Amino acid sequence: MPDRIRRCGARAWRAQWPVYCEIVLFVVLDLAYEVLRAFVAPDPGGVRGAFRHAHSILRTEHAVGIAIESWSQRVTDAVAGGRFVTTWYYALAYTPLFIAFFVGLWYLRKANYAFVRNWFWTAHGLALIVFWAYPVAPPRLVARGLIDTTKHALTLGGALDWFQHLRNEYAAMPSLHIGQSFLFGLTLYWLCRSWGRWRNIWWILPVWMAWVTFATANHYVFDGLGGVVAVAGALAIVNRISAGDIRRPWEPDQTAEATSTLGSDLRQPGGRA
């Protein structure tokens, strides 16, 4: 039985199973993440600590000149439709974005799928540890003059009221909205190496998400940096513990390179036609 469990675990780690198994795994992990995030929410005494941490972050941001949360909301509100777009992007983009990303990865770059998926969920695991150890109240609950633009949108007209009791209001640090978008942007930057300079377009994902989280008063700049650190830490962990034959997204596609090399060889004088 232990050998069978190890084999099943190895198949899961390598995503060597049918797509319906992967869907089940994603649903289970996502539900587990949401439940655990609510479970590590601070008690009343911890809430006071979450506000102390938030004020400490704000003081530090002001000291180094990067406290742009209020400014970004004012700029967004000054643009016609700015609040509408940022509010609904924050409310709706998180889950659909990672579904679209991993569906595309499964069907278009299956060799890279397992590593990126393991990286993604390891980052979530690291974030849960920080949520528990260092709760932080978001800007919408702390900073004067900021408006919580997503409060009603996140319930989708009341359809998701049932979900609100799972929402940990003090899980601002790190921001996985920004961290997740950074992971997607970096992965796509690596995978689209044939695009040349055009592959830099994928950096729009984390930059735009960062702006959205600031403009909606859901995260501080330091929360975004924390999300990037969580993703970087998860990358180091997964790279260290993954077998060498699990394809990393920054590694070139050897098959494509071999095909390209073969084509150039055939065009050389004396090459076979």
Task: Please provide a brief summary of the model.
The chain has helices at 2-14, 19-39, 44-64, 69-78, 82-108, 110-133, 139-142, 176-191, 204-215, 221-241, 254-267.
Low-confidence stretches: 256-273
Distance between the termini: 55 Å
Q: What percentage of residues falls in helices of 4 or more residues?
A: 55-70%
- Please state roughly what percent of the residues sit in beta strands, choosing from under 5%, 5-15%, 15-25%, 25-35%, 35-45% or over 45%: under 5%
Major sheet attributes: none
- Give the overall silhouette: globular
What structural category do the secondary elements indicate? mainly alpha
